[in-house]
Each structure stands twice: as structure tokens, then as C-alpha cells.
Design brief:
It is a single chain. The protein has 973 residues and is mainly alpha-helical. It is 62% helix and 6% strand. It has a five-stranded parallel β-sheet with strand order 8-9-10-7-11, with helices on both faces. α37 runs antiparallel to α38.
């Protein structure tokens, strides 16, 4: 039925189909039938809505003309019926009992299908399946194609149109209610804002809006909605809000924790998303019985406790994770609402950030990305609220310290946390601490036997005891040694014991703490073939969470298939893990050991540097190709440091973007690592070529960290060229974040350094950026000078995309000076350049600039067309912050066209996405939202928005603060 809107029904047969949820239309198969005159359509609608029942001639006359029928009404009805018979299939329109009826299949009418979907949704909701209920309601609502019975005349059509519109609104309310129950509160605010504007007296919509705002952390606005509603009802109807609305206001005032729950307590268990993230337990788990019983008892009692936290500590390889995972699996029946797991990477140089982990946990618990707040405190609060009333086990593996895990603790009755760490969590209040030591000789022998096999061990028990003793009774070492023996059926246990004895002679003095772990890895490493050992050593040198097959091939300087063979063989030895198809990673301790082996055993020490150099070349060459695909004719790639190792090639833009964002963490880690290893210039150029990562919003923090490392290294070595380019990358970081003073200073120094180093490339970039900053800060003449210089330099360099960028920025500046015609012409020049060279993402930036200019020119329809195209392109290119910026400008255009409801809706969406420019632009969005709400009569909520905007403007020292103060003063008067 959805295909009715365009006259085609995919997969349709020759059967008749009809629609009334929009214009009244009919199809035979995929072919639209002639609609006939308005009265003929009114007759068809009246018969369709009777669902096969006969309508008498008198009823049809009343339906078409009411109390004022024409003198020949009966003849007219017969004429319309005759015409319908000629159009419809024979036998469909029948005459009986002095009237007419339609004989069709129940699913031939879109309204019947919509009603069936809504009924199924109601059943799913009653059964606790909220997600399915929401999906079914969305399908039902999707059958509408504008106003029901559009342009159909007659009193009957008027009555039915009102009924269907009301039912559609009720369905929308139900779907929004389900959205809030499922945690989609942030993304619901924009739609609810528009609906309350369209239906200002509908209290249920106001109630849902208050709840959505409250759950989005906007308590003051939620209360302002109530104040606006109370005033409106008093003025329009002379009544108070209904009790439910008043009760909700009181609960918000009291910060009722129940309101923060995305899902109602009464929801059946089937409606709750249950994460099951525990890693697989090992089938040969052995020993630790006392710990298993102790931890199991504590976890079983979590139901009646505020929160159970058990922290396991011990040296690397002692089996903390294995024990915790085993215990967690056994405790699963006590935590029916799910289990969460994360490796916090606490022993590495880049421990997991709590806010990143919380984002992952919240998504696993069913919270959509748009509803996840930015700050650590807000994420932690939402995490605890989401867990309230649920019984969840959280396994926090490999923690760095207590500070890292505190925000990750559930803190709710019925929940529990298991923590593993190499340090004792003595500063973790209320935690049950367990110090895990090596295995007893008996446990160690049982583990060895279960892996190797009873028959081989029984005949050489003494040799087996020698092996586990040589392993220091560490479970990880025992597992490696036993795996090597199990893979070599010709070896006896005595052969393995003799090998261990020989190697321990070299490590006699290294028998304590982590050094025992190093000795155990000698078992696996010493048995590797030369090619395997080389790969093991060199691959461990790279920072980053994992390695792709192509990146590993660059490090090893081997073909892909040879690299895959050696990596898979290392996976078989348990020295390397397969993170996903085509991706590999080291356990943190194994990585440290691999690096020690590289320092000790690499026959040519320069090969270590060469391996990392090839990796850097690989990333730089491949990223440059992504940049060239994204920005054809941009000469930046011609000014990057040359590379000697070939990168990847791409056949299309999408695969290039996929690679860039998949490799983002590894690429940025490589740049940061290379900054301190004599490969600074290529590291800086890698960051410059990957500048899209700074603007995406997803990798901004890591990008900034890598850029700061590069800057520090450049200053330490006195490399002016590298420092100038590093400052160019930081300028972009600070511009995106709205830190304009810092951005201007970085661009100023980048210019000075580039000129001193004889490196002209960064200068036009810096001029372009300083032009943007100057016009934002109101220094228009200075900004124009910078941008004209950037245009001239770009033309001299033949860099058409950079020229177009500067033209579009100059357009924005001219607009600030009131030169609207010039602004439009400049933006159009930018579009023409981008069009000619086939740029999509940067063409979106130009359309954005033109849309802003057209808005100021009063050409609102054209402005919205340009901004809509820009929005679509930003979305396809994963530029979420630019999407938010486009939504903000669309809100401005709608407000200028006096469409405040649409303006408020787009401004709300911009707040969810975030914008280029940080808090200052957020303040601008709030100001526009406040103006739209004021126009809609929601003055209390508007003032809340303006007060928040004022605070942000004042923090930034922005001159717009004066305008907002004036707004607040004017409205208070």
C-alpha cells in the first residue's frame, strides 16, 4: 500500500486496491485508475468506508450534499455509480436494496491495513514487546499520504476526515509513548515540540514533551512547558491542566527517580534488552574451587544487597580474567536482565576512558546514540538510572585503578560488579578484595593434564611436575606450554621439561613478579619458526587496539597471503588473538613481551624502526588516497611527505570512507607513536590528511591528543616545518570545538613557522582559518584580508577546492556586512567550482553557505532546498556535527519564513546532533529555539532556552550575550 503514493504498487497483482488515507485513489495491479470528478470520488469514499455494507441512495445523497442536495441528486448518484462500474472490475460495485455496495478483499483498502497493523501493535505492547509494537505503529502511520480524503467534498467526508485525523494523532501519541519507554527521549523532543505547536491544547502531547525533556536532562524546560500549558489553558478555556499533567510537574520538581527510567517497571521481561557480553568460558577450567564458591555465594546474594563488588587482583597471567569469566557464567541465573563486559586495557598506555565504556554499555542496554549525553557525569547518571530495577552483572576486566571503574559501577540493588586488575583496589569503598595467587601444584598439574591429555601425563608425571614448576604455576604459562606440547605429538613431556630447564638457566635471577610472566612466554616464543618469531616481534611494536591484515603486511613487508598465513599460525599458538576476520591483536602482557623480544633478538636493530616506518607509510599513503578521492584537484596531497611503502587503493568513495573510519583509532595511534620516534614529519602529514576525523565528532578527542603530541615533539626537536603543520591541524581542532582564540593563535604561529621554514603549504590554510575566526569575532576588514589572500594563494597553487572553501567563507563574511547579493554570488562561485571537480562533501559546505545567504535574502524556499541537500550529503559522509549545523540553519530559515513550529523542530534536532563551533553555536541554536517557542506561545520554555544560551555566550565571551540579555529584558517587561 505504501506504493500508492507514487502510483506504483511493487509486486501488485491485477486485483483492485484503494486508498483513503490521502487522496481517494484506486489501482488495478500497478496501474492507477482515473479518479473521476470530486463527487464521484466522494461516492467511492462513502462506499469504501462502509466496509462492504450497503448504502442506500438517500444515505449517499446525504453524504455528498447534506441538507442541500440538488434537484437531480438521485440521478446524479446513479450517474456516478455507472461511471465507477466502468472503471472498476466487473462485480465489484453492486446494486442491492435500492442502494450500492463495494465487494472487495479486506486488505484492498489502506485504512483496513492500517487498522490491522494498529491492532497487532496493541497486542504486541500488551505482550511486552515494545519494539515490535513501535515498528507496527510506524508501518501503520506510514500508510498515510497527507490528509485523509484530501479534496473530497461533502459533509460525510468532512466528518470522516476529522475522525481519521484524530485517529492518526492518537497513533502518533502511542508511538511517541513507546519511544519514551524505549529510551528514545532525546530524539523525540523535536517531533513533540512540532506537535505541541500544531495542537497547543492537546495535553497528552504536552505531558510527553515534559517527560522527554526531563529524561534528556532539560528539567527547567520541562517545567517551563507546564507553565506555558497552564497559562494557555487558562486564557483559552478557563481551566487548569488535567491532574496527570499537574502530577508530572510535581514529580519533576521532586526529581523523581522513577521518571528517569526509559522502560516502565511493569514491562514484562521480554520487552527489556538483555545484553549477554560475557566472553566464552574455557572448557578446561580447573581448580580455584574456594574462590569459585566464595564469589558465587556473594553474587547469589546480590538480589538483596545494595550492590556487590568483588575485585580480583594478581600478577599478569595468574588467571584473573579466566576465573572471573567462569564465575560470571555460573552466576548468570541470578542476573536475568543481562551481563555487561569490557576490557578496560588498564595495563597498557591507553586505558579505556570511562565515558567511552559507558557509551558502549548504554547502547548495549538499548539506549540510542542520540539519547546518550556527552559528559562522563551525565552518562554515569543515565547508566545508573537505566540499571535501576534491573538485575545486571557487570564484569570490568583489566582495570587500571579504582578511579577508572567508579563511574562504571551499577550502584543499584540487585546488580553486581566483578573487577579484575593487577593492583589491589584498596581505595574502592565497600569492595570485597581477593588476591589471586599462582595455582597450587595439584591444580597446575590438573590444568596441564586436561590440555595435554591424561595418557601422556600419567606416564611422565615427574616430568609434568617439572614443567608446571618451571612455569611458576602461572595458569597462562601452563596453558601456553601445554598447548605447544599438545600440538606436537612426537614430543614427550620430558622433552618439553628439558627445554624449559635450559631456558631457565638464562633467567635464573628473574623469578619474581611480572618477570615470571616473561619467562613463561619464552615457552611459546622459543618454539616458533623464524618467520613466526620475526612477525611476533615486529607486530608487537605497533600501538593501537589491533591491526588489520593490510597494516600487518606493511609492518612485515610481506604479501597479504603470506602475512595471513603467519598471523593465523600465531593465533594457533595463542600468542596472538583474532579480534575479527582480518584483524589481529595482542594481549597486553604478550605485547610487552613481544617488544622486549624485538629489542633483544632482532638481528638488525634498525629493522624495528623500519617496521614502524613502513606502517606509517602505509597509513599515510592510504589516507592520502582517501583524501584525494574525497577532494579531487586538492593539491594538499602533492605537498605531503613522500612514502616508500604502497598504500591501499579504492574503487569508490564509500569503501575509502569505510576504511578511514574503521582504521581511525589505529591510524591516530600510529601518528602519535611516530611523533616521538624520528618520523615526525610523516606523522604530522598523516594527521593533516586525516583532518576529516577531527570534524566527524567521533574521533575528535583522540585526534587532538595526537596533534598535541606532534606539536610537542616538533618543538622539542626544533623542526619548524613540522611544528607549523602540527599547528595547522590543531587550528582545525579548535575551530570545530568553537575555541576561536586558541585556533587563531595556532593559525598565526603556523603562518610564521611555515614562512620561516620555507614551507608555503600551511599559509593559505591558516589564512582561510583566520578569515573564518575574524568574521566570527566581528573583525570583518581583517577577515576579508585573510580570505582574499587565501583565494589568491589557492589560485596560484592550482588548488581549486581550497579556493572554493575560501570563497564560501568570504560569502559568510560579506553576509555579516549586509552585502547579501555579493554573498550569494560568492557562494555560487564555490558551488560551481565544486560541481566542476565532482566534490560531494565540500559541495555540501558550499550549499550550506549559499543556504545561509539565501535565508538572509528572504529567499527561504531556495535556502531550504540548498540546506536540505547539504544535510543529506553530510549524513552520507558521516559528518554528524555538520549535520547538526545544517539543521540549525534550516531552523533559522523556517523562523525567518514565520514557520516557528518547523523552526523549533529543526533546532531541537540540531541540539541532539551537536554543531561545528561548540558551545557558542549551541547557544545560537538555543536562541533560535527560544524565538520559535516564543512565537508558538511557549514563553516560559523560551526564557529557559535563552537563559541557557546566555550562560554559554558569557562563558565564551561572545558579543551575542548582549542580544540575549535584551531578549530576556524585553520579555520580562
Amino acid at each position: 500500500m505504501a506504493g500508492m503514493a507514487d502510483g506504483n504498487i511493487p509486486g501488485a497483482t491485477d486485483e483492485l486496491r484503494f486508498s483513503v488515507l490521502g487522496p481517494v485513489r484506486a489501482w488495478r495491479g500497478g496501474k492507477a485508475l482515473p479518479p473521476g470528478s470530486p463527487q464521484q470520488r466522494a461516492l467511492l469514499a462513502a462506499l469504501l468506508l462502509r466496509e462492504g455494507r450497503t448504502a442506500t441512495a438517500g444515505e449517499l445523497i446525504d453524504a455528498l450534499w447534506g441538507d442541500d442536495p440538488p434537484s437531480q441528486a438521485l440521478a446524479a448518484v446513479r450517474t456516478y455509480a455507472s461511471r465507477l462500474r466502468k472503471v472498476l472490475t466487473a462485480g465489484v460495485l453492486v446494486s442491492e436494496s435500492g442502494g450500492y455496495a463495494l465487494r472487495t478483499r479486506p486488505d484492498a483498502l489502506d485504512l483496513s491495513v492500517a487498522q490491522e497493523l494498529a491492532s497487532d501493535a496493541e497486542k504486541s505492547r500488551a505482550a511486552g514487546n515494545r519494539s515490535q509494537a513501535r515498528s507496527l505503529i510506524n508501518k501503520s502511520l506510514g500508510l498515510w499520504d497527507g490528509e485523509a480524503l484530501a479534496s473530497v467534498p461533502g459533509p460525510y467526508a468532512d466528518t470522516q476526515r476529522t475522525r481519521l485525523d484524530e485517529w492518526r494523532l492518537q497513533l502518533t501519541e502511542t508511538r511517541l509513548d513507546l519511544d519514551l519507554e524505549l529510551g528514545c527521549h532525546a530524539e523525540s523532543v523535536s517531533e513533540l515540540t512540532a506537535l505541541t505547536a500544531a495542537h497547543p491544547l492537546r495535553e497528552r502531547l504536552r505531558e510527553l514533551l515534559m517527560l522527554a525533556l526531563y529524561r534528556s536532562g532539560r528539567q527547567a524546560e520541562a517545567l517551563a512547558v507546564y507553565a506555558d500549558t497552564r497559562r494557555l489553558l487558562a486564557e483559552e478555556l478557563g481551566v487548569d491542566p488535567r491532574p496527570e499533567l499537574a502530577q508530572l510537574q510535581q514529580r519533576i520538581l521532586q526529581a523523581d527517580a522513577e521518571l528517569a527510567r526509559p522502560v516502565e517497571d511493569s514491562a514484562p521481561a521480554s520487552s527489556i534488552r538483555r545484553p549477554a557480553q560475557l566472553p566464552a568460558t574455557v572448557p578446561d577450567f580447573t581448580g580455584r574451587l574456594s574462590f569459585v564458591r566464595e564469589l558465587g555465594w556473594r553474587l547469589a546474594g546480590a538480589k538483596d544487597s545494595v550492590m556487590v563488588v568483588s575485585a580480583l587482583a594478581g600478577i599478569g597471567g595468574v588467571g584473573k580474567t579466566t576465573l572471573a569469566v567462569h564465575v560470571a557464567h555460573e552466576a548468570r541465573p541470578h542476573f536475568p536482565d543481562g551481563q555487561l563486559y569490557v576490557d578496560l586495557q588498564g595495563t597498557g598506555g591507553r586505558a579505556a576512558e570511562p565515558e567511552t565504556v559507558l557509551g558502549s554499555f548504554l547502547r548495549a542496554l538499548g539506549i540510542p546514540d542520540s539519547a546518550i549525553p556527552d559528559s562522563l557525569d551525565d552518562r554515569s547518571a543515565l547508566y545508573r538510572s537505566t540499571l535501576d530495577g534491573r538485575r545486571i552483572l557487570v564484569l570490568l576486566d583489566n582495570a587500571r585503578d579504582a578511579a577508572q571503574i567508579r563511574p562504571l559501577l551499577p550502584g543499584m540493588e540487585g546488580c553486581a560488579a566483578l573487577v579484575t586488575s593487577r593492583v589491589r583496589m584498596v581505595d574502592l569503598a565497600g569492595a570485597h578484595l581477593i588476591d589471586l595467587d599462582v595455582m597450587s601444584p595439584e591444580e597446575a598439574l590438573r590444568l596441564f593434564t586436561r590440555i595435554v591429555g591424561e595418557e601422556r601425563v600419567t606416564s611422565e608425571r615427574e616430568a609434568a611436575l617439572d614443567v608446571v614448576a618451571a612455569c611458576g604455576f602461572l595458569p597462562l604459562a601452563i596453558r601456553i606450554a601445554a598447548s605447544r606440547l599438545a600440538a606436537r605429538p612426537t614430543w614427550t613431556v620430558s622433552v618439553l621439561a628439558a627445554k624449559l630447564a635450559d631456558e631457565w638457566r638464562r633467567l635464573d635471577e628473574l623469578q619474581a613478579g611480572d618477570l615470571a610472566v616473561k619467562a613463561t612466554f619464552e615457552l611459546g616464543y622459543g618454539a616458533l619458526e623464524p618467520a613466526q618469531a620475526r612477525a611476533f616481534r615486529l607486530l608487537g611494536l605497533a600501538d593501537g587496539p589491533d591491526l588489520s591484515l593490510a597494516a600487518a603486511a606493511a609492518i612485515l613487508d610481506l604479501p597479504l597471503h603470506d602475512t595471513e598465513d603467519v598471523l593465523e599460525s600465531l593465533v594457533d599458538t595463542s600468542l596472538v588473538e583474532s579480534a575479527a576476520p582480518g584483524r589481529y591483536r595482542y594481549h597486553d602482557l604478550v605485547r610487552l613481551y613481544a617488544r622486549a623480544c624485538a629489542e633483544r633478538d632482532e638481528p638488525f636493530p634498525s629493522e624495528r624502526a623500519s617496521a614502524l616506518s613502513r606502517l606509517l607509510d602505509f597509513y599515510l599513503a592510504t589516507t592520502a588516497r582517501v583524501y584525494a578521492i574525497e577532494r579531487p584537484c586538492d593539491s594538499l596531497v602533492d605537498h605531503l611527505e613522500p612514502t616508500s611503502y604502497e598504500g591501499l587503493s579504492f574503487t569508490d568513495r564509500q569503501s575509502a570512507l569505510d576504511w578511514l573510519y574503521t582504521e581511525a583509532n589505529c591510524l591516530l595511534a600510529c601518528a602519535q607513536q611516530a611523533s616521538g620516534s624520528g618520523q615526525l614529519r610523516r606523522a604530522v602529514d598523516l594527521l593533516w590528511a586525516a583532518k576529516d576525523l577531527a570534524e566527524s565528532g567521533a574521533n575528535s578527542k583522540q585526534y587532538e591528543s595526537a596533534a598535541l603530541s606532534a606539536l610537542e615533539a616538533a618543538r622539542a626537536t626544533g623542526d619548524q616545518r613540522a611544528e607549523g603543520r602540527a599547528r595547522t591541524t590543531l587550528t582545525n581542532v579548535y575551530l570545530v570545538a568553537g575555541r576561536y582564540g586558541e585556533a587563531d593563535e595556532e593559525a598565526r604561529q603556523a603562518t610564521l613557522l611555515a614562512r620561516a621554514a620555507g614551507d608555503p603549504s600551511p599559509v593559505p590554510w591558516a589564512d582561510n582559518d583566520r578569515g573564518i575566526i575574524a568574521f566570527i569575532q566581528g573583525r570583518y576588514e581583517e577577515g576579508e584580508s585573510y580570505l582574499l589572500r587565501a583565494i589568491e594563494a589557492s589560485r596560484a597553487d592550482g588548488n581549486r577546492p581550497r579556493e572554493a572553501s575560501a570563497l564560501c567563507n568570504l560569502s559568510r563574511l560579506q553576509l555579516s556586512l549586509g552585502r547579501t547579493a555579493e554573498a550569494i554570488a560568492l557562494a555560487q562561485q564555490g558551488i560551481d567550482i565544486y560541481d566542476n571537480i565532482g566534490l560531494t562533501l565540500r559541495l555540501a559546505n558550499a550549499r550550506y553557505a549559499l543556504g545561509v545567504a539565501l535565508t538572509q535574502a528572504g529567499r527561504h524556499g531556495e535556502a531550504l532546498d540548498q540546506l536540505s541537500e547539504a544535510l543529506s550529503s553530510f549524513g552520507k559522509n558521516r559528518q554528524r556535527l555538520w549535520e547538526g549545523s545544517a539543521l540549525f540553519r534550516m531552523a533559522e530559515a523556517h523562523l525567518a519564513a514565520w514557520r516557528p513550529a518547523h523552526a523549533a523542530q529543526h533546532a531541537e534536532q540540531a541540539l541532539v546532533y551537536g554543531c561545528i563551533g561548540g558551545d557558542r553555536i549551541r547557544a545560537s541554536v538555543l536562541t533560535v529555539l527560544g524565538r520559535a517557542l516564543e512565537a508558538l506561545g511557549q514563553s516560559d520554555r523560551a526564557r529557559v532556552c535563552w537563559y541557557e544560551a546566555l550562560g554559554l555566550y558569557e562563558e565564551c565571551g561572545a558579543p551575542e550575550a548582549a542580544d540575549v540579555r535584551a531578549l530576556l529584558t524585553l520579555k520580562a517587561a
